[in-house]
Specification:
5% strand; 7 helices; 243 residues; elongated; disordered N terminus; three-stranded mixed beta sheet; mainly alpha
């Protein structure tokens, strides 16, 4: 197979309308997902939980009930920068969720506690994702430079390497799906069974916030997958242009 060595598509040296044929729909989906997150978070941030617990208190309680002991709860910088670090066993919540007493704060805090519970019970998909982080980081840093260098220098092996590295990033995003959906499922289960969320209206808010957040992962993965397909097509590896 002869590869197109003039791999200078959109994002490299010139505008290629076919890029938007492949990826345009995913861009729109990503924009809709982000808008949905902001709308849901804004709406349910204005609704206080009847129990009156802060996000930090909810996270601590969900961790304890789920068997994730000795997890440190810290405040993180940045807007919606909430995450769980399995290497340090630290759950970090953004300021608005750490101190917040809203349904949205409880939902996000419980979701991150869901990751801590996954870690405590050795959830296999979390273990796989954690082990794969170095590979995904390498792909994220090097895929574009290799694609660019391969196109500029007309070196097919660099283009192939860049595509493979980007494929590794896509794979990481795919294996993130079960991790995120399972964390939300665990969070909702503990919130419901423990009484931390007191009625169906509050639970509806939790589901709205977590459902909107889940859609951002789905949209990002679809966008990356379509970008990968475009790279394969543009390089001639998927029935695209060839010299």
């Amino acid at each position: 197979m002869i590869m197109d060595t003039h791999f200078l598509s959109f994002g490299f040296l010139y505008f290629d309308p076919m890029y938007f044929v492949f990826v345009g729909p995913a861009f729109l989906l990503a924009m809709l997902a982000q808008a949905r997150v902001k709308t849901a978070f804004a709406k349910w941030s204005a609704v206080p939980c009847r129990r009156g617990w802060t996000g930090a208190e909810v996270a601590r309680r969900v961790c304890e009930l789920g068997g994730a002991h000795d997890v440190q709860i810290e405040m993180a910088n940045g807007y919606l920068s909430d995450h769980y670090d399995p290497r340090e066993r630290v759950l970090r919540l953004s300021s608005e969720n750490y101190h917040g007493r809203s349904v949205a704060a409880a939902a996000i805090a419980a979701h991150e506690a869901g990751h801590a519970i996954q870690h405590a019970v050795n959830y296999p998909w979390l273990s796989l994702r954690s082990a794969y982080v170095p590979v995904a980081s390498l792909g994220s840093w090097l895929s574009f430079p290799m694609l660019l260098a391969g196109g500029l220098l007309s070196i097919p092996i660099l283009i192939q390497a860049g595509i493979c590295l980007f494929g590794g990033v896509v794979f990481f995003q795919i294996i993130t799906w079960p991790v995120e959906f399972n964390a939300s499922s665990r969070a909702k289960s503990v919130l419901r069974e423990s009484g931390l969320i007191s009625d169906s209206e509050e639970m509806r808010g939790v589901e709205s916030v977590l459902g909107a957040a889940a859609m951002t992962y789905v949209a990002a993965t679809i966008q990356s997958l379509l970008t990968l397909l475009y790279y394969l097509w543009r390089s001639g590896l998927l029935g695209g242009q060839r010299n």
